[in-house]
Amino acid sequence: MNISFENQVALVTGAASGMGLATAQAFAEAGAKVVLADFREDVVQKEADKLVAAGKTAIAIGCDVSNDTQIEAMIARTVSHFGRLDVAFNNAGVMAKAAPIAESSHEEWERVIGINLRGVWNCMKHELRQMEEQGSGAIVNNASVGALTGNPGIASYIASKHGVVGLTRTAALEYVKKGIRVNAVNPGLIDTQVARDVVSGDEQAYDEFAKRVPIGRAGRPDEIASAVLWLCSSGASYVVGQALTIDGGLTVG
């Protein structure tokens, strides 16, 4: 895609690896000034340094998205450094530890919901305030094909992703007349560590799962990045409150 984000500021959470890193790199390639945020500050600092060495504009910020104070500081630092915030990809997330609902712990639910759902709400809250001041902006939240169905053993994850889609649709309706578009993506099986966590790191099980995807393989992080950039671009100016499923046909049949 020939999409330009020149003179725009892009924020990506969960940017240390996988879909987040691929999206941050894609925004940088498209000319954006990029903020890479992750609780692994040392990792995102290295990735930001690589972008700067390649002639891009980027900074790294350590942030735990389950912590509202850290998120507020992340947005404040972004604006103080670059002057504005134009686009955001709220990508940070975790997989649940497998357990039936009756056997899952309160602590595990708090961890997963706190990062996957409350974290998205926390990020959007502060992003929307800044974008409303500017009168423009675009946000994409990372949900999952898990937002479309159930999946035994990972109820907290599934519930969190259903919640992300509902939150996205509501925010879209609340802010579209203020010049801000909010959408989501529903990735299917993507070649990331989180995908391997679903099968507890069993590579054989992961490979078998990938073969069952109609397209015959797992998706690449850059394929999600391409969709996120399009949703944030003027080319998607009429797309509001949608959850774009990107899954190689996994949920079609």
TrEMBL record:
Q: Which UniProt keywords apply?
A: Oxidoreductase
Q: Which GO terms describe its molecular function?
A: oxidoreductase activity
Is Cell inner membrane there in the keyword field?
no
Give the similarity note: Belongs to the short-chain dehydrogenases/reductases (SDR) family.
Q: What is this protein called?
A: Oxidoreductase
